[in-house]
Amino acid sequence: MSSKPEQKETHQANGAVLPIVSVDCLTSPDRGQLVEPSDFLGPDGDGVEVVVLESRANAKGVREEDALLENGSQSNESDDTSTDRGPEPASPLKETSFSIGLQVLFPFLLAGFGTVAAGMVLDIVQHWDVFKYVTEVFILVPALLGLKGNLEMTLASRLSTAANIGQMDTPKELWRMITGNMALIQVQATVVGFLASIAAVIFGWIPDGHFSIDHAVLLCASSVATAFIASLVLGMIMIGVIIGSRKMGINPDNVATPIAASLGDLITLALLSGISWGLYKELESKAYVNPLVCAFFIALLPIWIIIAKKNAATREVLYSGWEPVIIAMAISSVGGLILDRTVSDPNFAGMAVFTPVINGVGGNLVAVQASRISTYLHMSGMPGESSETAPRKCPSPCSTFFSSDVNSRSARVLFLLVVPGHLVFLYTISSMQGGHTTLTLIFIVFYMTAALLQVLILLYIADWMVHWMWGRDLDPDNFSIPYLTALGDLIGTGLLALSFHVLWLIGDRDSDVGD
């Protein structure tokens, strides 16, 4: 009977309270025969209790081994060691390049046509009185259109990850995720809309020093109301898309963010135009309407804050998720300034209709990639944990685009969608006579070069940023997509403006870039 005290001494030396397990528990049909019962029989044939010790490192190793086994089919170097394990549930990451492309293609085209429609709408509404006499509304456009990256795409990525890791399988979990996330995005939309209106007032005041309190209140009411309603509508659509995708066996990461983008630009721009036009008409006769509208939506903030705070899934984002949203809005506003300066120049008048397209396509593709990488990391643990799935902080371009893992495969697929997608969108714009620009060969070459370079940069930044945030104990679903889509707006607008400038300098008059 000396073995029992020895086990207790070992147990106390490790400094942790561990359970004492009877020998009957050491045999498991899942893990095989671990010990022979005869080895632990006392002199009288009675079972002797022993302590089964498992260190934290071993527990973590088992968990990482399980994650690798679950996704073993994605790597050519992995060995099949799960022959005696039960069947694992299907992983959303076990996808071929063809299946990824097939699932992404339709939402990608839908998103692209949504950006084309948004560009055509902007081309029409720019002649309305509210856009003529309250020109600061143009400054609101990129910031509010960027809400799809700040809020809706982040919501889609967050819910896609939750669905893929089994946090929305029961009705109770589903309802908890829906109510918490909807309340959260209403808080974020109201605050971002208010800050965007302040930025528009400041940027409109800086050039000529003119300030109108009526126009400032109009901008505040229009921005807050547009952000609130657009986020409510798009959030409900996103929930339906993600639930439907899971029921149809489609990876929500591949479809949710592009659909959010496709509807986001069009719905947001239509709401901004209609609300600002209606409030502008009431400005002279009923000046009190604008401050009432602004006060109404701001007064609803405490309700949404209380709901979001009660939900554990959104409480952390409510406190820590403001930095990327606000910084992304500032980055988008810089892109808006570039757009405002270039479109006002007659030499770049044809650029306006193409800007939402190139920015939207780049943002859509990088959002899909960021959502997929985030889901892949979440399946191996929690942010901040040392994981073999996040081994690098600054990846090389070769590892991002040419390695054998599933994220590199999806990066190649998404990059290859750029040229055929943009050709379809350019033909659509040309057939609708948008922008009054003739599609010459040299124009298409410069446009495609800008689009390819934009997506190439964004996909590489996404690979670095998501892993870097993961190592910093930040959830990429909440932090990465706002930065990436805002960078997409800035890079896309800058490269497109540069392309038009070069075309004008070399004298490509056939493309009518100045029409």
TrEMBL record:
One of its GO terms (molecular function) is monoatomic cation transmembrane transporter activity. Its main location: membrane. InterPro entries: SLC41_membr_dom (IPR006667), SLC41_membr_dom_sf (IPR036739), SLC41A1-3 (IPR045349). It is found in: Membrane. GO terms for cellular component: plasma membrane. The chain crosses the membrane at residues 104-124, 182-204, 216-243, 255-275, 287-307, 319-339, 411-429, 441-461, 481-506. Pfam families: MgtE. This is Solute carrier family 41 member. It comes from Thalassarche chlororhynchos (Atlantic yellow-nosed albatross).
